[in-house]
Amino acid sequence: MLDNEWFEQYKIGVPLIDADHLNLFREVARFNEHLQSGMSAEDLGKSLNFLDKYVGAHFAREEMLMREKAYPYYTQHKTLHLQLKKVVFAVRRVFETDMEKVDKEKLHQFLRDWLIEHILKVDAKLVPYVNGAYSNDSRSVERLQFIGLSEEVTIDEELVAVTVKVPQSKQKVIERCAFALMHNTPEAQDLEEIALAATGMTIEEAMELAGAVLY
Asked: What is the distance between the terminal CA atoms of the chain, rounded to a whole angstrom?
């Protein structure tokens, strides 16, 4: 079982984030214990349910903190969060369709590698902006207070035309959504996440996204 001494090397010094990370490390440790003793479909299902809730709640808290502290790399960080959410959503989708396709060993290794990489190389960059050198820089806060609400990000993909029919009262909503997607603003990621949550994903999409952890 994971112990607190082992976890010390992964603490970044932000209590809110460290507490969430500790819960996740404990879940990964439980996952490993089940692997060693013979993981059942029920065990895997419980772990996937935990991960599904975790990536929603923890990432939301972390992103709120980044916005409050005017973190200048908010968009890049949020993109990484969305990537992991997609994988978690995809693995759950595959599991619900054919649980035998999920390689438990690969999933465990993926989670360990991703967590360590993300915490040590990505989350650690937050520290100076939360409780370090830049935490009280009012000029930075004033300059970046709307970060994530108006920023546009360069998009290299080819744009395609999409024709849809919607109720007239929703026309402006669709136009605003289209603008966000066309210009790849941070809100575009929110729209993508909402779409995944609202309509799910096809099994073909899930298989492609979760490919690294499947047999």
From this structure: 27
